[in-house]
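idk why but the lab printer keeps eating my pages so im just putting this in chat instead. protein + D-glucose:
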Amino acid sequence: MAAATYRFSVGPWNIGRGADPFGPPVRPAVAFDDVLDAAVKLGFEGIQFHDDDAVPDLENLSPAKIVAEAKAMRQKLDDKGLVPEFVAPRLWEHAHGVDGGYTSNDPAARTWAIERSKRSVDVAAALGCDIIVLWPAREGTSVRESKNPIEASRQLLAAIDAILIAGPSMRIAIEPKPNEPVDHAFIPTIGHALALGARSFDPARVGVLIESAHAILAGLDPSDEMGFALAAGKLWSVHLNDQNGLKFDQDKVFGAANLRGAFDQVRVLENANYAATGAFVGFDVKAQRTQKAESATAHLATSKAVFLALVEKSRTFPQRVAEECIAARDYEALERTVLEHLLGC
Ligand code: GLO
Ligand code: MG
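predcted complex ->
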């Protein structure tokens, strides 16, 4: 049986802004239509959206107008042979979400966050995709005593339920991150996300999106986080990238800091036949500040090339030798087998 092929996806924030978080733009921002053309050229079939990437200025539009604009976006994708992968409510950039959305201390902000999420559901439905990604960016604290974690968990659960009710055909993929932009996030790991989902009104529709860097920032092995979600049938998307230890979220090229760790992530996806589920492989990577405009998508091309090379490494892995090492409990020999395979010797 031929091995299933992977489908790749990308978000406009991985191509467009021309700035890093520490300074003004150093390249012109890439217009949205050019992002789509770049995706096609790079061989990425799926587009990931923040709600206001799909419908700019949606806060100032009526629900009917939001749906009309999302339908126009759907047509634009169709014309280019692209498909929408997910929509994420971008709560963390709006003034109302300054103290978080669902867990804000301001009840008006909490109401706003739920309403905005319902609009995201409308956008996703009109685009024709069935995944809402929740990256709970500011749902946490920088001053521990400012929020009550018991209450916050209840609020997050209520938000998940509200989204599930608003979109009966939607699934929610929670994208946990332990910190940044807040000091401590309320849903820091995959275990937290799945435990919360299990308590929701429809657990079958709550899963996860795993970003490699977010697992590393939590001190965890991304491939183990993936394995945990895969065992539960809950890995609905991935944001592969890399991270040089416990720093800010670097969004480095996949495999750039830890090639073996990247291999282990590909291997766990391969072992679970992730490609056959139809779920996408996304790369949440950013161009380096030093990069010139004409080659500012190289980070995506390299991440995809590394991924495909590691798929090959996974498919040619000397499994029989590895099993013999395991049977003999000779993990030093296994270590060498892995390293020699990766080194190509
Ligand atoms: C930042 C997150 C961010 C999300 C995106 C989709 O650390 O990884 O890039 O993936 O906004 O919600
Ligand atoms: Mg991400």
